[in-house]
């Protein structure tokens, strides 16, 4: 075998698996040691010596953990554990225009599940000022919503306020993060299938339930309000199944 033949057989060693192992091992140690936000971890050189790998591998592993929001560098303290910003982490990958239609519809369905499920929190934490703001939002809206997709601007204002009323900042941030995906679903016509003619709960009716109804009535009202979307999603699914 000549040198040329040997060169053809020699390929660069893939170190990605080693980086994966170091990354997972670091996370396991963080959990085992029950490290909390603010706790320091060893420096790159020390980690490389302790784990028997190069600083390059350690650096790549730490960069991944920083991207995940699990660690951060602090002046005079080195690298420390931090509580991840879930919205920021998800926001780096949730880009509507590069998500396939199946993922977009999954995200939209998740929105519907959240808004029905958060009704109890909204009802329990509502204030008079909240109700007043909702009344101002719905003042210029139609009295009811028939078989139409709700006006997007009205939807965003009204439902954005509801997320705020949950008192759950993570949930509110999550909603803001998903808004571009919701808008994209409308824009590209994924919900263009028309359901049967029926009347849905309007925003005004939901406000009235918040003022005078019960948590169960409000939850059911929210489900009926979103029926417009549920019908279209299920009909889109039926059409796709038939075509397949």
Into which percentage range does the β-strand content fall?
under 5%
CATH topology of the largest domain: Four Helix Bundle (Hemerythrin (Met), subunit A)
What's the total number of strands?
Answer: 2
- The protein's oligomeric status is single chain
Major sheet description:
2 strands, antiparallel
- Structural domains: how many: 2
Reading the helices and strands in chain order gives HHHHEEHHHHHHHHH
Neighbour order of strands in the largest sheet = 1-2
Shape: elongated
**Which structural class do the helices and strands define?**
mainly alpha
CATH architecture of the largest domain: Up-down Bundle
CATH superfamily of the largest domain: GntR ligand-binding domain-like
Helix segment tally: 13
The poorly predicted ranges are: 237-244
Radius of gyration: 25 Å
Helix content: 55-70%
| Mean pLDDT value | 80
Quick one: CATH class of the largest domain? Mainly Alpha
Q: Determine the N-to-C terminus distance.
A: 54 Å
Plain-language structure description:
With 244 residues, the protein is mainly alpha-helical. It has two domains: 82 residues, Arc Repressor Mutant, subunit A (Orthogonal Bundle), CATH 1.10.10; 155 residues, Four Helix Bundle (Hemerythrin (Met), subunit A) (Up-down Bundle). The chain is 64% helix and 3% strand. The protein is built from 13 helices and two strands; from the N terminus they run H-H-H-H-E-E-H-H-H-H-H-H-H-H-H. It has a two-stranded antiparallel ribbon with strand order 1-2. Helix 2 crosses helix 4, helix 3 packs across helix 4 and helix 11 runs antiparallel to helix 12. It is elongated and about 70 Å long.
